């Protein structure tokens, strides 16, 4: 099967690293490299620069290129799944840069457009995937209007599409889409992180994306091992431990999703807590709450 190594790795913990900034507000390449190395040395096999936890939509084009290049350098033997998006030309340009920099896959962010037709959704992804046939392509599906038959039609015209990061908060909908698209045709990745992973694994997912893995890699990797081994008592034990952290990220419509991860890394001395608008820094009360969570994990 084409892209077999990539398929095997996507059926695991897909890390979405943060993008650290300097005091002047620029991308901190040295710190970024250390954070990626920390993930890979912990056992992570797929790293996604320019994902949403990496503040993709707050980065300039040159900054996304820099993040990709740093990741490719630091990833060692791990797979690099480069986030690309925006208009077709921009996404293709980024995908070709990812290929030239050593990435072996790209993740196409959902089209940011007020008027998305199903046929147009297929055309958008086909246009990007066909320009980089040597790379595996992962779809980032957040639109509940996309049907399984749409994914199957896309795979017919873009055979390098191998994975689906499914981020519609509805496991029943996920199972329906995956069944209609073909379970074996794609690697199905739970795209709403650790708290949703058990429900999605129960109906066919084999991997999950994670921002928490930046902070506590072994917790995320242990959760995956238990999910893979169907040790659901162990899964729920970990689930209960991480729930306060993930609920902080999800509060207020995910307003602090990245801020919580970066502040946790800051409290561990790993990077600055800075985020770019429209995200914001945590309040003192929120930072104290987060400190308590990290202490309960033995990390503070």
Automatic annotation (TrEMBL):
Pyruvate binds at residue 53. GO terms for molecular function: 4-hydroxy-tetrahydrodipicolinate synthase activity. InterPro entries: Aldolase_TIM, DapA-like. Belongs to the DapA family. This is Dihydrodipicolinate synthase family protein. Pfam families: DHDPS. The keyword Lyase applies. Gene3D superfamilies: Aldolase class I. SUPFAM superfamilies: Aldolase (SSF51569). It comes from Amycolatopsis dendrobii. SMART domains: DHDPS. The active site is at residues 140, 165. Keywords: Lyase. The keyword Lyase applies.
